[in-house]
Fold:
Amino acid sequence: MSCVQNSCEGNHNNGFVIIIVLYVLLAIILGSAFFY
Structure:
C-alpha cells in the first residue's frame, strides 16, 4: 500500500506543478495582451 500511496502523491505533485505552469503561462499571455 505504501508504494501505491507514494505513486499517488507523486502524481498529485506533478498535477500541481502542471497547473502552476499553466497559470503562469496564462498570466504572461494576459499580461502581454493588456500591454498591447
In short: Helices lie at 2-35.
